[in-house]
């Protein structure tokens, strides 16, 4: 049995796309009810992603584990109930559905937090996030909004050859990594 005061990392499942809003709700609710001693940190792992919109580079924070929020807490008494009752929280990641929240192992925590640190240290360098045959959406340029299939990847030039259906005909486009996004 963990001694009172010892905090472990847990994973809260939340509605995807609402992670930061839910993080704020959790923090506010815990503070309002005076449970700050039990909850040390609420964290939404994010990574910096560079996108091009209208020809301009934009740094964007992207949630790394969509639908998951990490929380370092001592889940005793009311604390799990308070967190579960927050809007858009689905529940805790546990061994069984609806069972007790299962703490993360230290190795998992290090890996996740290491990932977070590693990503924030990295100067948003763009890895090759695409694979041949993958379907992507064009988000910049004259074919904005079209979907296409990646035919080729040119790593040196950081370009993709994307086959897009235009007026019923397949047309190859050469696009930069920044001009497309995964579907």
Radius of gyration in whole Å, from Cα? 21 Å
Look at the helices and sheets and give the structural class: alpha+beta
Low-confidence stretches: none
What share of the residues does DSSP label as strand, in percent?
Answer: 35-45%
User: Roughly what percent helix?
Assistant: 10-25%
Number of strands: 11
Outline the biggest β-sheet: 5 strands, antiparallel
Average of pLDDT = 84
Q: Can you walk me through this structure?
A:
With 183 residues, the chain is α+β, with helices and mostly antiparallel strands. It is 20% helix and 38% strand. It contains three helices and eleven strands, in the order E-H-E-E-E-E-H-E-H-E-E-E-E-E. A five-stranded antiparallel β-sheet has the order 10-9-8-7-11, with no helix packed on it. Strands 2-5-1-6 form a four-stranded antiparallel β-sheet. Strand 8 and strand 9 form a beta hairpin. It is elongated, with a radius of gyration of 21 Å. The termini are far apart.
């Amino acid at each position: 049995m963990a001694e009172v005061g010892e905090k472990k990392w847990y994973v809260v499942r939340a509605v995807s796309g609402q992670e930061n809003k839910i993080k704020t709700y959790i923090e506010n609710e815990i503070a309002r009810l005076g449970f700050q001693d039990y909850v040390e940190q609420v964290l939404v792992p994010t990574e910096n992603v560079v996108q091009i919109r209208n020809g301009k580079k934009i740094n964007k924070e992207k949630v790394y584990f969509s639908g998951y929020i990490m929380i370092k807490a001592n889940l005793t008494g009311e604390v799990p109930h308070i967190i579960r009752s927050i809007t858009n929280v689905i529940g805790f990641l546990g061994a069984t559905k609806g069972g007790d929240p299962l703490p993360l192992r230290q190795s998992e925590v290090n890996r996740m937090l290491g990932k977070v640190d590693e990503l924030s240290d990295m100067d948003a360098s763009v890895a090759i996030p695409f694979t041949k045959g993958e379907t992507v959406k064009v988000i910049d340029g004259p074919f904005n909004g079209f979907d296409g299939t990646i035919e080729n990847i040119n790593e040196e030039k950081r370009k993709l050859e994307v086959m897009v259906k235009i007026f019923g005909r397949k047309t190859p486009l050469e696009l930069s990594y920044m001009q497309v996004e995964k579907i």
